[in-house]
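Think of the structure tokens as a kind of shorthand, similar to the way a musician reads notation: each symbol stands for something richer, in this case the local conformation of the backbone. In the example below we present two proteins back to back. Begin with the first one, reading the sequence and then the tokens, and try to describe in your own words what changes along the chain.
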Amino acid sequence: MGSAEFLVQPKRNSFIGQDGRVKDEYIAQRAVINKAGRNSDKLLFDTDGSEDAATAAAKMTIADLTKDIVRVDGRVLAQLLLSGYARLNSKVDELNRINVFPIADGDTGANMKACLKIPARNLLLDRFESSIATVSSNAAADVLLNGQGNSGTILSHFYVSLAEEIREFGGGTGGEKPDSLSIDEFASCLRKAGRKMADAVPSPVEGTLLSVSRDSCANLPARSFSTLRDLLEAWNDLAREEVLKTPDKLIVDGVKVLEKAGVVDSGAQGFAYCVEGMVSSAQGENPEAVDPNLFKTGVVDSHGVGEILPAIDDDHTCDSKYRFCTEAVVSLKDNVSKQQVMEAIQGNGEEIGDSIACVSGPAKDGGKMAKVHIHTDSPQQFFDKLLPFSRDPVLLKEKVEDMKVMRELEHGEKTSDCLLSEAKFTIVDMGGSALPPLERSGELFTIPMFIVPANTEEPIDVRYATDTEALLALNAQRRESTAIRYTTAAPSPMQIKVELLAALGKGKPVLLFLFSKSSKFSSYGRNICKAIDMLDPEQRKSVKMLVHGWTDETSFVMEAIRCAKEGKTIDEAYAACEDYASRTFGCISFMSHKQFVAIKTWRPNIFPEEFDVEEGSLFISGTPAAVRSNAPSLEERFSLGSTPIGVGDSMVDSFEKTARHIKDGLKPGQKIGNLMIPCVGRPDNGHLLVKKLEDAGIEIVGTPDVFSYGIVAAVMMEWGLVRMNYKIIEE
């Protein structure tokens, strides 16, 4: 088919369905438009359902693997990689559920998907590239940049090694790059790539993704393969055999942890699924590989839906003595080797973490990149060790995840849905509210919020952006060359009405939260009021709206959740939230120069003309740390939340000044509770703030909630910054 046959012009606003949600199918159009220079050979999917199944499937097919293929060119390799991703994508929930080693944080499947999703999508966008060397090199660079977590880093090492071996058949980096390979030559590349897998981590562990990818490739029979299908079937058999050996091979402190848990290694199984997808496509049995929804946008968590998977006994799961799963991608300076990077991390006999993995390879701009993964308590120390090797003043990518929270999400007791389903009222909040992950529930209803990137002008519904999509967007904002301007877009009254009707469908009164009704601050309030007016009279009586007046409503939503779980009525919850907002709510914000510029661009009239934040400093603002005897008006609350506290010359200095501000404001016997610290990509900074509060002698009631903002933070916040909300507790 010619390129014109793949061109479907996007329809204005066709990505928004009548229910107010962004259509999942639209991700394919978004992906193309987001990729610069794609004015021809576009792969766009019809979103109105007019295409037949055969046409849609044809668009997802780069090469027909069912033929008797005797040479592997770029299109065949692209179809192999796409088919492998498709099968793995269908097994993500299973892989997350059986995740035991190196830590049972339930994200192996998600990390492997994140590693392959964008690279697989790009294979479709580059569908007419016929050189196997070019396709393998592009895929390697994409995988290297997008790999996440321990499994993603090791998986990317395999694809980089395979690309290196393919180039060798053309005489190396300086020679001619091969357009295609014979089946036996391709098999030789797989064997050699497998042998390189031991270099992915300093201390290889048997019975894992690393050993299974190594042995299934390196042990391919030294015979001539008649066709590609013949090779794939042999590879698939070996991969299956090696996965079944993992429970016996993986031993931690003398314990066969997989055997005790009754599972195989999740990363190894994920790799085997990739191989299985390839051979299934060659046998004409991989429907996932021609599914137009393969690259759909983030959706509501489907945990518990679909295939019933075996539970894992917590007594049999692994743990880490370090808290943060941390990784970085570095654009390496000339003549810097992977070994130098590893020595810098592990040098001087100083252990800053474990589970270290590193992979390096070519970047698309001709330079070199390195991807490094570690479990550590000091992410900043890790990043500081890498920065001297970077060509750029900012690392290409940073990622910090709190493994204790991830473990609790996957294996902890999940009670919110059950308790809220029995509540006497239903809660509706704004899409931009950042809730702690353990409190996110299908029993909560959310009004849409859209952010609009300037390069596409296509609203993104922040409720359905995945953590991975948020991470990519926030990392892009860290570098001038990739940063884009975002604005916000309020939902229409009809979109709001849809959510209100869904909430009312529970048959209970609805408690709705709103910052302000004034259009001076946002059209949210105006449209919510219009949506309520569109309801029937009896429905309107069932909606109770709390206008709290603070810029962040997360604290009041959490207070309502607590009330709901305790069996309180909607009136009791409203009174508790209003008292909290009026008297005891406290908040602190930290604003950098970069954030100040972004906010001023977004809302030009917020700051006085003479106001500025100097580069290298943080402007600290927030409420006085005191119980208010008289309830301030809504206008006064906005001003109180912006009260200047001071300027810090570093994050540590800012946190220490914040702690003194709160300590000096509290009266004897007063404490703080309901402490919530949403962070922009760096939960370790949130925990540092908690430590500074404790060091200052401030008594904190309950466990602080330190968690990550979603993609909405890309609009007006900066990577690494935090906010702080709290409640003053009186004796």
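Once you have a description of the first chain, move to the second and do the same.
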Amino acid sequence: MGMGVTSEKTGFLTGGGFMGALMRERDWSRSPLGNPEHWTSSLKTTVGLLLRAEAQIVLFWGDDFVALYNDAYAPTIGDKHPRALGRPASENWTELWDDLEPLLKGVRDTGKTFSGKDRPFYIERQGFGETVYFDISYSAVPEADGSVGGVLCIVSETTERVRASAALRESESRLRELNEHLEQRIGARTRELEQAHNALRQAQKMEAVGQLTGGIAHDFNNLLQGITGNLDLIRRRPDDLDRVGRWAEAGLKAAERGARLAGQLLAFSRTQKLKISSIDITSAVSGFADMLHRSIGPAVRVHMDLNTDGVCVQGDQVQLEMAVLNLALNARDAMPEGGDLVIATKTCHFRDDSQLPDGDYVELSVTDSGEGMGADVVERAFEPFFTTKEVGKGTGLGLSQVYGTLRQSGGAARIESTPGHGTIVRLYLRRTDALPRKLDEQEAVDGVHPRAATILVVDDDPDVRAFLTESLDSLGYAAVTVEGGAAALKALEQTSPDVMIVDFAMPEMNGAEVAKRIRQLRPDLPIIFASGYSETAAIRSVTSDRSRVLHKPFKVHELQAALRELLAAARGK
């Protein structure tokens, strides 16, 4: 058995830790490298450096890639240590030699460094094989003559980190799958619950409709009494012009109230489309003050506190007026012995509000000195059909319509009330810089004298056809009336109308179907859709820049405005 190394020529091994001592004591007679005393200066210098380094370093030297390594590297090869020291790598790295040899030869033959992150190696080091991972940097070590003597491998095992990352990714994947599965199950259950909830709400709504039919019928009968009664008086005394004017005005107001109630019903059904425009809020509120006084009676003192001169908001003016009127009537009913009603406006700004987007608003408040409401009533006050009034005294649609109107126009409605201390309802309307469009009704009718035009009227109701014929005649138009779609198509063979007015809801062929058929024959024909329903998808599917929608009941000036606009567009094309 050979002896260890003791020569002064092996001083480079001194201070090299456990591996330096092992190299000094080792019998090198069986190693291809021979005695360290005779190693080349380049090999000695490199080994001296790696032995003192804290990084994991292995040096593969010579044609046989003899392994020399330091204390930090030894644990990474497990039970290959210490037999791998001073022996060709092919003897101890047999299981990965097909992978390792090309890397070492590539560096030795080209002199170029090879590096990699989380490089996998299959290795047997604890009596079993496993894939491990290293960050590696393999560099050529030159001899004094310029040739490559060996390959210096600086490595850092990353196996634990790679496996932990893989485990984390797998856990995340499983968690995602679990979440997706859970979401699917929750979604499915949320859809039995939604269906059940919707069925319950529908049942509750239908029950409420049944309970409130009497109240709604009562309101409509009162309105019809105002209309038919005044018309009957006009028929009996047509020559009493002063009274005829008053009776006609009273009948018209009753009809307007009926239209508002129908609008409330449509708002409840969530099919009413608002006509959003710019509104001068001070002018709008003060403009219907007289009607407000007449509606609530003399026992209630009305005070106006308007601080929004020149300020405009976005909304539907008719719906807004109806909302304020509803609030005023509720306030009157809450003050049976009389009291004070304050209608006020002021500007305000919202930021980080739960209901309103950041921006500038106008607060329109209606305050009464009435009986007030408890918290349970305030919480339900905006629900459709909810009312604390007796049957026949209210439909329960008023506050629901107020809330729906405000939300659709980008605002909100809120209630504050305490029993015995009155109620304040605050309406928040979004401010706008757009100017309101003003048009006097009589100006709309008389301001423009139309050139003679022929209007094709299609409506299955004889009374509506008669009204439209009289209205068109009074405006200077020639009317051709038919009662359905088939008759309208036949009329086109005999006349060439400038505009068509078509009812939407008709038997056999509705207005949308009539419009589609007629546009195949006359694609440029302007069309006015007259509908007792709110705008629906069927109507919107056939509207264009050559069409308008009039909601029944409409007035003559509204008809005139639509005709004038369409005719002007057609003649200016």
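Compare your description with these statements about the second chain. The chain has 17 helices and 17 strands.
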